[in-house]
Amino acid sequence: MLYQFYLHFWTSFFAHSSEQKEDPAPYLAYLKSHFNPCVGVLIKTSWVLAPAHCYLPNLKVMLGNFKSRVRDGTEQTINPIQIIRYWKYNDSDPQDDIMLIKLDRPAILNRKVQLLPPATRNVSPGTICTLSGLDWSQKNSGRHPDLRQNLQGPVMTDKECQETEQGRNHRNSFCVKFVKVFNRIFGEVAVAAVICNKKLQGIEVGRFMGGDVGIYTNVYKYISWIEDVTKDKKK
């Protein structure tokens, strides 16, 4: 598999000489499948928000500790019972790259499993936000990431975003400037979600990342759809 071939040739974006430290990002969900790795965010106990291009066969949602060799009791693996991609999404067009995953049972919250609410307002250019994602620790040579990592980066203006290769002709999205040049296969997994003002502001757009700029679906633009799909129908 292409993934396995490249894994041994990567230089980790976060790698350094000492042991890597896991950052706090308890809202991250790993979407495990037999295909490319993907990351979502737990927005309600029964709902995960993720990129629509992560609609993959045999998908399982993993929460809590991701280290397979070190168990700490926070691990949860939950099957999806419903996956709803935004109605305008098209596999051949990366616009509207957002979906919701309903879990077959509610997640149990603990120190490594927490909710992150979606943004209900837009984010201003220049805002310094947190980019959260998963990476491979130095001792992990397997197929699946096991380490949460956070970065900081500023939101770019719409004009700056549209002048980039990633942001050109893209709607309902925004760009973030990375602190260093970012080039590696499946790099979007490491900077999958953008958190601004303690809310989920953006989720990565596949195939549109590279260099020192990343483009993200603006979650705020879809908040009405998100709230309608995830509302408690019993009430």
UniProtKB/TrEMBL annotation:
Main location class: secreted
Pfam family, one: Trypsin
SMART domains on file: Tryp_SPc (SM00020)
Gene Ontology terms for molecular function: serine-type endopeptidase activity
GO biological process, one term: positive regulation of fertilization
GO cellular component labels: acrosomal vesicle; extracellular region
Listed name of the protein: Serine protease 37
Classification of source organism: Eukaryota, Metazoa, Chordata, Craniata, Vertebrata
